[in-house]
Structure formats: structure tokens, C-alpha cells
Predict the 3D structure of the following.
Amino acid sequence: MAIVDLVMPKLGESIMEATILHWSKKPGDHVKMDETVLEIATDKVDSEVPSTAEGIVEELLYRENDVVPVGAVIAKIRSENGVEEQASAPERLTPEVKALEEEEEIKEVPYQPPSPHIALPPKTGGARFYSPLVLNIAANEGISLSDLEKIPGTGNEGRVTKKDILQWIDAKKEGGTQEPIEQLQPVAVAQPTAGAVEPLTSPKTEEAPEPEYSGNVEVIEMDRTRRLIAKHMVESQRTSAHVTSFTECDVTNMVLWREKVKAGFEKQEGEKLTFTPLFMEAIIKCIKKYPWLNASVDGDKIIVRKDINISMATALPNGNLIVPVIQEADMLNLTGLAKKVNRLADAARNNRLRPDDTQNGTFTVTNVGTFGSLMGTPIINQPQVAILAIGAIKKRPVVVETRQGDSIAIRHMMYLSLSYDHRIVDGSLGATFLTAVAHEMENFDVNRSF
């Protein structure tokens, strides 16, 4: 028999750590190959980690709610098939994880009495940067962003490290926290005279009292997913200069065509044909014409994405939201889009999304009309620069232009709203793209096949 290391799997290009939600196995339990050992969560998706060997669970190296870097050994399994022992944890860590750990390792700084002038730590020129590890600890401990700003950072350029936030939490539990050094003004310190030395004390902040709510109320603690959504939404508004443009669209041809072919489509393909893949088909054609809508911003650089990966906002049964991604959507025909949309929506609602299913989105579509909304002002899904909201389809009397003159007819009408990042997408480009999407939908070919 040999001991096999179970490691935290790679969970996507930008994800460097995950939180352990629940251990499905405990030491002494028998586990089969590919059987679920634990459930983990990232800021993108919850997932299950299967066993890489059959045997007996020898040891669990982390507890539930621990934040673990990708590549770290999380459990040991006593294999029954003589597999050679796996490499140790340090050898399995990726270079990115090693760099993250090195950044978090800060040496102890001995206390020194203040000099005649107190030096302020360096500023970052704007909002402070926090690593995903620090943000996860803050979320788990219920630390607000305003409190996080008060924590003095000892990292590069004044960053808050793991050690900083843990020391702050310990100090708070013991009865108070030190004021961050940047809140203090430079002062001259008088030189002490013999026999008149007074002890120096650090200023303390009083513990904020627990808020009281008057009236007949119910106080509900946000779950982990809702806290992450709240953080992402606020960060998006802070990062991008949001602008929203609106237009209306006559989708009568699209509605009549779908009604005509949906039964045959389901019989032939084994999939239901919803409006979502029809909308996405039109959006993809327009993104090819206006590629700056399929981009991101990195400082003063514009990163135009060549792959069109469409994110689709999906509501979950518990009221939360998740955004799975159709990878390389521009390479799929209508049938392929329909199958992808249905699979991802079903996986999202049944908590079966894989980590890769939420990665690398370049443009987001949200169908607010599903819940009866006529239109919306969606918030950009960072680091993308645009999101398109699709409203409910409603029958309305409208003026129709014909060769014989204008007439009033009952048409299937729908509002589209595009929120875009005004740092790189000007109003002219945003409005032109939105108008092109509406034109593509209005001129849907009713004689096409699926």
C-alpha cells in the first residue's frame, strides 16, 4: 500500500484558492476512484472534488471553511493498488501559488519607540488593492470594506497581508484594534526630561455597538454567495464608468419562426428551443462587427478579445445569481448554442457547474424579460466592458411602414438596454452596436432552417 496525496485542483485560469465547504469523507472511510471527497467554493462557483485513488482516507489536512491555495495537499489516502506516493505539497504548488505565499510571508517587526516625526506608509494612488485571500478572510469574518480600509498594511505599497488581517482580528477579539498609522498626523514629539517619563499608549478604537432595528423586522444574514455578489457589484460600479443606452426592437419574425419550428426542433435535437440562443446568435454577429464591445481594460491598455465567450446571467432557485459562460460561442451554430444554453442553465440550477463553466467570459447577456421586466440597467460583469439586458416581449400596436403607406399593426415588441464602460466605449459606439443588434433581430429570416 502507498499514501496518495489529494491536492486542491486547478479551478480556472484566474482562481488561486478555494474554500472548503464540506468534507464528504472522514478519516477511516473507504473511498472509490472519482468518488466525491469534499465540496469546495470559489468566488465563481461551488464544485466537488473527486478522489484520485481508491483506498482509505488516512488524514484530512484542512478543516471546513479553511481557504486553501490551488495545488496544496488537502488529504491523504492510503491506496490499495500500490500506486507510488505522490509528490509532497511544496513540489506540487504552481509558481503562481508560490509567489502568492511568498508575498503573504511577512517577518516580525519588533516594536520601536516613535521618532520625532511619524512617517506615513506609501499610498497606492486610489482604492487599496486586496488579494483574494484577504478578501475571503474578510468575508468569512464579516469585516466591512470600511473596516478593511482601517487595517494598516505591511505589504508592498502598504498592502494588507494575511498576517495583517489575522492580527487585526485577534486584537479586535481581545478588546480593541489599533488605529491605522495613516490616520495619524505628523506631530513633533517632545524630548522626555529626567524623572518625568510618561508611558506611551496606543490609541484604541471603541467596538461598534450592535445595531438595533426598530419595528417588526426580520434580520437575515447574507450567505456566502450573496456577499460575493454584493462585493462584485459594488466593485464594478467603482471600477467602470457605467452608461446605459436603450432601444426597442420588433421581434415579430423571430417569434413567428420559433413558434413554427420549436416542436420539430425538440423532436429532432432532443432540446427545447428558447429565445436565448436566437438572441445570442444576433449579438455574436454584431460583436464581430464591433470588437471593442468584446474587450477589457488593464490600466491604460485596451485588451480586445478574439474569442467570443458569452456569459449568460442565470437566476438560481434560492434567489442568487450565477453567470456561466458559453466558450467560443462564435464557433457554434443555432443548434449548438441551444444545447449549450440548456446544459449550462440546468447545471447552474442544480449546482452541477464545473469551475471552467464560469471562466473567461468576454460579453454578458441577461434576460430580465424572463421575470416580466420591460427593461433594466444592468451592472457590468468585470472585467468585461459591456452587458446587454433583454426585456419581455409584449404585443403592442405600432406604426408599420409599407410601400402602400403607413399602417397600424399588432407587433411583438421588446426593449434592449446596453450598459457599457465609458472609459473605452463612447456613446456613439454603444448606441451603434445596440442599434445593430436590434436591426439583426428585426430582420430575422423567417424562411431559414435550424
Q: What stands out?
A: Confidence is low (pLDDT under 50) at residues 83-126, 177-202.
